[in-house]
Specification:
The structure holds 2 protein chains of 2 kinds.
Chain A lengths: L2 H15 L3 H13 L4 H21 L5 H18 L13 E6 L7 H12 L3 E4 L6 H11 L3 E5 L7 H12 L7 E5 L5 H7 L3 E2 L3 H12 L1 H5 L1
Parallel strand pairs in A: 1-2, 1-3, 3-4, 4-5
Chain B lengths: L7 H10 L8 E2 L5 H5 L11 H15 L3 E4 L5 H5 L3 E3 L7 E4 L22 H15 L4 E7 L1 H9 L1 H10 L1 H24 L3 E5 L10 H21 L5 E4 L7 H6 L4 E4 L5 H8 L4 E6 L1 H6 L3 H15 L6 E5 L9 H14 L6
Classes of the chains: A alpha/beta, B alpha/beta.
InterPro entries (chain A): Cbl-bd_cap (IPR003759), Cobalamin-bd (IPR006158), Cobalamin-bd_sf (IPR036724), Met_Synthase/Corrinoid (IPR050554), Meth_synthase_dom (IPR036594)
Organism (chain A): Geotalea daltonii (strain DSM 22248 / JCM 15807 / FRC-32) (Geobacter daltonii)
Family (chain A): Belongs to the methylamine corrinoid protein family.
Chain lengths: ~220, ~350
């Protein structure tokens, strides 16, 4: 890496960690003007910054407000860089369908998981909140998802998560998708009981889980 | 089901003075499960104070716990200030849209009139009925959503989160008008003969930092608590999720009892603040109370008691948070039975 390039990527990462939208845009513009590879800038700049933000969240230095602001800066930089990505530079991305299960409209947790997954190179289709089980299954088939990610904050809607797994079983599709669950009332025990592939305790953990489940040896198992 | 030798008010009063009691106070925090006790749909509680009272009274009489709390959902004050709440036919209501979508409309927000706006009058009616019927034997409380959490329902949680970092003065303006609603509702609850019971979900360190809590939530909580104390009442403050780093501040706010959930440790809380406040908690509402067996409930209840029965300011054995609507009756009964069997002084 040339010093210039390195400096710009570091500035991008810092802009994200510092929650500085304007700086993210200015630096992204500079990356484009310098003719640097946009995909690399996203990976080594914006995503690296978001990863650091995630670490700070894990360490309880950052909380949900900070993480939201970091993601605002990341998306601002992304908007500048995206149109400049060369198609051949893009690796095949793992796909995730995410949403909050029917009956629940709390979506802060889901939004954070989505942000962290996107940052980590997953292509995320966000169905939104209050989503019936069948829509998850349909969407996963449609986009050929690798993972179905289900979220709820309410105990009243947890059964809907089991229903997604049941529908996959009924349609003979269970081995096509990994199902991961999370949210306030969810536990590893609950995930095991409904036959999900994994449970994540928070957004950073969801990324680790998604990576593990889509790593070649696990995916093939 | 076992019989208690003392009535709840008698028990709490004697416990507070260090006198002889029959068992520890115990509160499985029953919310809309009360609808199941009288066989009505949760949605029927909307706008129906007498039905809320009937259900909560019946649940109290069935299980024999120590506090009747009039509560249906966290959104009653926000709704009374213009937020849109969705009422499913038979599930707990949820926030559909905040009171304002555009911060330019911040000045339009007005404090609610608890005797006129939204469902607050119906909750007050329910409180009045419960106090009339049972006020001499059991404490009746009215649930208040605290200023900061209620503010998050006025503009939306994510908007409020960003505002804390971008435009802190606007957060303070929101909390100020939110506090005014809380104060008026607290006054009305006390006038109805009950005690406010405070819930502040968004103040959790699972959501905001301890520093943000001290800046944006604590000052308003303290004013609310001072008001309640000024009326001669004590108050329990419930914050779910991680709370260890804000226990000091919760005590500083003036809470008389900290209600914590299973993301926090009763043992640690006892060591940190047990000399100054009573503790309440912390059996897992979903993993144990909803999904566990009575034997699981018994184990969890015993572990709670072991952890904090010797808390200097006392312990109320409780679920970590409001129970899910479909919590099996036998699990609620198992919690009560375990506390009765352990008795006081505790015998394991």
């Amino acid at each position: 890496m040339s010093a210039d390039k390195e400096t710009l990527f570091k500035q991008l990462a810092d802009a994200v960690v510092d929650m500085d939208e304007d700086q993210a845009v200015t630096t992204a513009d500079a990356v484009v003007a310098a003719g640097l590879d946009a995909y690399e800038a996203i990976e080594k700049g914006l995503s690296a910054g978001m990863e650091r933000a995630g670490q700070l969240f894990d360490e309880e230095e950052y909380f949900i407000p900070e993480l939201l602001m970091c993601s605002d800066a990341m998306y601002a930089g992304m908007d500048v860089l995206k149109p400049h990505i060369r198609q051949d530079a893009v690796a095949e991305k793992r796909r995730v369908v995410i949403g909050v299960i029917q009956g629940d409209t709390h979506d802060i947790g889901k939004n954070l998981v989505k942000i962290m997954l996107e940052t980590s190179g997953f292509e995320v289709t966000d169905l939104g909140r209050d989503i019936p089980p069948a829509r998850f299954v349909d969407a996963a088939k449609e986009i050929k998802a690798d993972i179905i990610a289900l979220s709820t904050l309410m105990t009243t809607t947890m059964d809907g998560m089991g229903e997604v797994v049941r529908q996959l079983n009924d349609q003979g599709l269970r081995d096509k998708f990994k199902v991961i669950v999370g949210g306030g009332p969810i536990s590893q025990g609950f995930a095991d009981r409904i036959g999900a592939d994994g449970y994540a305790i928070n957004a950073a953990d969801a990324v680790r889980l998604a990576r593990r489940l889509t790593s070649p040896d696990v995916a093939a198992a | 089901m076992g019989e208690d030798k003392m009535k709840p008010l008698e028990r709490l009063s004697a416990y507070g003075k260090g006198e002889t009691i029959d068992r520890l106070p115990c509160v499985p925090i029953v919310g809309n499960t009360a609808a199941r006790v009288i066989g009505v749909k949760v949605g029927q509680f909307r706008g129906n104070g007498p039905l809320i009272a009937q259900a909560q009274i019946a649940a109290y009489q069935l299980f024999g716990y120590d506090i009747i709390r009039i509560f249906t959902d966290l959104y009653t004050q926000a709704e009374a200030m213009g937020a849109k709440v969705h009422y499913p036919e038979d599930e707990t209501a949820y926030l559909e849209a905040p009171a304002i979508n555009d911060l330019a409309h911040l000045d339009r927000l007005q404090p609610a009139d608890p005797y006129r706006d939204g469902n607050l009058p119906h909750h007050l009616e329910a409180i009045g009925i419960a106090v009339d019927r049972l006020g001499t034997e059991v404490a009746v409380t009215g649930a208040i959503t605290c200023p900061f959490t209620n503010a998050s329902f006025l503009v939306g949680a994510e908007t409020l989160a960003r505002l804390m970092l971008k435009e802190p003065d606007k957060v303070h303006r929101l909390c100020e008008v939110s506090l005014e609603t809380c104060l008026r509702y607290a006054a009305a609850i006390i006038d109805a003969g009950a005690t406010p019971s405070l819930t502040d979900a968004m103040s959790s360190s699972t959501v905001i930092s301890p520093r943000q809590f001290r800046e944006f939530s604590l000052p308003y909580l303290k004013r609310l608590m001072d008001f309640i104390h000024g009326k001669g009442k004590g108050a329990t403050l419930h914050i779910c999720g991680k709370t260890a780093k804000i226990w000091e501040s919760m005590v500083e706010a003036g809470a008389d009892c900290l209600s914590i959930d299973n993301d926090a440790s009763l043992t640690e809380a006892k060591l940190a603040v047990g000399e100054r406040v009573r503790l309440m908690g912390n059996i897992h509402p979903s993993a144990v109370m909803l999904q566990g067996t009575p034997a699981d409930v018994r184990r969890a209840t015993l572990s709670c008691i072991r952890e904090a029965h010797d808390n200097p300011k006392g312990l109320i054995v409780a679920s970590g948070c409001s129970l899910p609507t479909e919590t099996p009756f036998q699990n609620i009964a198992a919690m009560m039975e375990t506390v009765r069997a352990v008795g006081w002084p505790v015998r394991f």
